[in-house]
Structure formats: structure tokens, C-alpha cells
Specification:
The protein is of the alpha/beta class. 53% of the residues lie in helices and 10% in strands. β7 and β8 form a beta hairpin. The longest helix is centred in the middle third of the chain and has 23 residues. The chain is globular.
């Protein structure tokens, strides 16, 4: 990256970091039971809601209790279950139309990050009916509160139940990008571990490593605060102690609860301190090929931890000591090496591939430009890279002939 662009990025990031204490960040109110969410609706006099989910989640019966509870309390439930992985603008518009037809007063998102992103996109469009999704791309383009939003995660990974981000895919141009604004933070988050016990092991792995990526990218960046550092540290320790247990024994409620907490903490951290190039590249892969976001993050993360090198050794070593990966007296290089090796080993144990065979050489320049546009100047990464430099990272992920 040339010197002028580097200066611009760092000045932009510094200004954002200075502004963090005065920006209207908030955490959603935490609830433990689905019935608590229905009680909130009753208290607020809401008689009709939009339930945003996907066919898989609904097919597994994970929304059945909520649907019955709403019916028992006389609250009409209009269901949009057309959300796809990497939700599209069409998904958002279809959900919005159903909300308006049902004269709804709130949105409940049940599922993984895709359902929550779709629900947030819908809320943004309802708040700003004259703005399209592409017009709200980037930061602080919504600027108006939408309907009451309750988030119910069925995976422990995205942390979307805590964040101000919605990631939407333009299916026509194969472009995936975030919308970031404070009104998109859900009003309530229901963390119910039983909803996650049916997750297949591979989905448990990729969503858990997604949470790890959120925590680590926020932690190694240059815009941390005492809160985000504490939240990232708690998240990483919980993931270190519980992810593999949840992967091996999906019915372990303690591990599931701890993973939900880890995803929540990571979400609080990265919504304030942001992520980095792992996400920029993962989003471009999702837009181009439909690569699942958690899987992409899991594959990409260790490559960037290696690439950043000594610049992040001190921070990774601190995490390693915190988790007990190394002795408290271990040096930064030893601690960082132990942490990165643990990430590689977790990927191996949970059968995460080291490479992504869908990547085509001819697509790399366009994807790198998308990753550059998303990441710079917003993400306060340890080392700045432009599109040309990012192209090399895509090639590391390609199978070698």
C-alpha cells in the first residue's frame, strides 16, 4: 500500500477510535427463555410480528415452541423462512413485504447469522423506506430506529445478536458487503442453549471458529478499548475450553451455554473494535462463490496470524498465557507460536480444510478489490494491505496443481 493511502487509513482509524467513547454503542437486553421474549411483546402491546428464519431451522422444529407460545398469547406470527446462507437483497425485500402485509410491530430473528442479517436488513429498509440496501452500504447510513428486534441465535458464532452489522449479498453482481449502524443492534437477545444442541458437528466447528475470528481480529487490531479487550479475552478462553467439547458432544448444555456466551462477548468486542482482512476476504468469497462465512473465516484466520508475524506476537502471547497454552513466564514469540499452532490444530481436529478449491485465479483481482474496499480504511488491522497485496493471500488458499 502506498504511503498516502496508509496515512489516510491510519488517520481515519484513529479518529474512529477517539470517537468510540461518545458513540451510541449499547448491548441488547439478555433473556434466557423464548417465553420471556413473548412477554416483552405483550408488555409493549404488540399484536403481530414477523418471524425471520430459514427452512432448515424451521424444519428442525426450532421455532415450533415460539410459534405456539405466540399463538397462545394471541400474537399473530407471519413467517419468512426463505432466508438463504449469505442472504440477498431479494431476501430482505421479501421479508419487508411480509412485514408490511401483516401490519407487524416487531421482528424476531431465529437462526444463525444469515437470518439475523436478513432481519436487520429488513429493519433498515423499514426505517428508511426510500433508501435501497446498496444505498445503506458502509457505515452510519441508516440513522433511524426500525421496529423492535429480538434476536434468537441457534448457532454460537456470528455474535449478530449483539452487533450493529448486517451483511447482505448482491446476487446480481456477486458482491457481499456490510451495513453498519447503531439502530441495527437488536433490542433483546435470547441465549437459549437447548436451541443449539441439534447443530451438526461441522456447523458447531465453523460457527465456533467464526466467534474466535471475531474475538481475535478485534483483539489484534489497533482500536481496542478496555471493554473490548476484556470481552475478547473472555471469548477466546471460553472457546479454548468449550468448543471441542461442544463439537464432540453436542448435547453438553454447559459447553453450549459457554459457547453462546463466547459468541456474545466476541460480538460486543468486534462491533466496537471491528474486524480485519480475514472478514474482508471471507465476505468476497461468500459473494463470489457462496462460501459459508464461518467456514471461510476458519480457513483464512491462521494464514493471517502467520502473515502479521511479530507485530501481533505480544497480543497472541497474552491470549496463550490466559488460556494456559504456555507457562506464564513464556516469551511473546513462544506464546504466539503456541496460539497459532492451536488454531491450526483445532482446524485439523474438526476437519476444517486448509484450502478452498472454489477459488479461481481469474476471480482474484475482483475479489481483492472488494476486500480492499470493505476493509480500508475502516478495519484497524495490524498491517495494512491494498488489493494487490491481498491477491497473494487468496493464492495461499488455492489448491496447488
Amino acid at each position: 500500500m502506498n504511503r498516502i493511502k496508509k496515512l489516510y487509513c491510519r488517520v481515519f482509524q484513529t479518529c474512529f477510535k477517539i470517537a468510540i467513547p461518545i458513540l451510541p454503542y449499547r448491548e441488547p437486553k439478555q433473556l434466557n427463555l423464548l417465553a420471556d421474549g413473548v412477554a416483552v411483546l405483550e408488555e409493549k402491546g404488540i399484536k403481530s410480528i414477523l418471524l425471520v428464519t430459514d427452512k432448515s431451522v424451521r424444519g428442525l422444529g426450532l421455532t415450533a415452541f415460539l410459534e405456539q407460545c405466540l399463538a397462545d398469547h394471541g400474537i399473530a406470527c407471519h413467517i419468512y423462512d426463505g432466508t438463504i446462507p449469505n442472504p440477498t437483497i431479494d431476501n430482505v425485500e421479501q421479508a419487508r413485504e411480509l412485514y408490511l402485509q401483516g401490519k407487524c410491530g416487531a421482528i424476531i430473528a431465529v437462526g444463525g447469522g444469515s437470518s439475523m442479517d436478513c432481519a436487520k436488513g429488513c429493519a433498515a429498509r423499514l426505517a428508511r423506506p426510500r433508501k435501497s440496501i446498496p444505498q445503506m452500504r458502509g457505515i452510519l447510513k441508516v440513522n433511524k430506529k426500525g421496529p423492535l428486534l429480538i434476536a434468537v441465535p441457534t448457532t454460537a458464532g456470528t455474535g449478530s445478536e449483539t452487533t450493529l452489522a448486517a451483511v447482505i449479498t448482491d446476487a446480481v453482481h456477486h458482491y457481499k458487503y456490510p451495513i453498519n449502524d447503531f439502530p441495527l443492534i437488536p433490542d433483546y437477545a435470547i441465549l437459549a442453549p437447548r436451541l443449539t444442541t441439534g447443530l451438526p458437528p461441522m456447523l458447531t466447528a465453523t460457527t465456533g471458529l467464526d466467534a474466535l475470528t471475531h474475538a481475535v481480529e478485534a483483539y489484534i487490531g489497533n482500536s481496542t478499548t478496555s471493554l473490548t479487550r476484556a470481552m475478547s479475552e473472555e471469548a477466546v478462553k471460553l472457546i479454548y475450553e468449550n468448543l471441542y467439547t461442544a463439537y464432540q458432544d453436542g448435547e453438553n448444555l454447559e459447553a453450549r451455554q459457554n459457547m453462546l456466551r463466547a459468541a456474545y462477548c466476541a460480538g460486543v468486542s468486534f462491533t466496537r473494535s471491528y474486524v480485519g482482512y480475514v472478514h474482508g476476504i471471507a465476505h468476497s468469497l461468500g459473494g463470489q462463490y457462496g462460501t459459508a462465512h464461518g467456514l471461510a473465516n476458519a480457513v483464512i484466520l491462521p494464514y493471517f496470524l502467520e502473515e502479521y508475524g511479530s507485530v501481533i506476537h505480544g497480543k497472541l502471547a497474552k491470549l496463550a498465557r490466559l488460556c494456559g497454552m504456555v507457562d506464564a513466564a513464556a516469551g511473546d514469540r513462544e506464546g504466539a507460536r503456541a496460539f497459532v499452532d492451536w488454531v491450526w490444530e483445532m482446524n485439523r481436529l474438526m476437519e476444517i480444510p486448509k484450502l478452498l478449491p472454489e477459488i479461481r485465479e481469474e476471480d482474484i483481482p475482483v475479489m481483492a478489490r472488494h476486500a480492499d474496499a470493505e476493509s480500508n480504511p475502516l478495519y484497524p488491522v495490524p498491517i495494512l494491505m491494498d488489493a494487490r497485496e491481498l491477491e497473494r493471500m487468496y493464492r495461499l488458499l488455492m489448491p496447488k496443481d
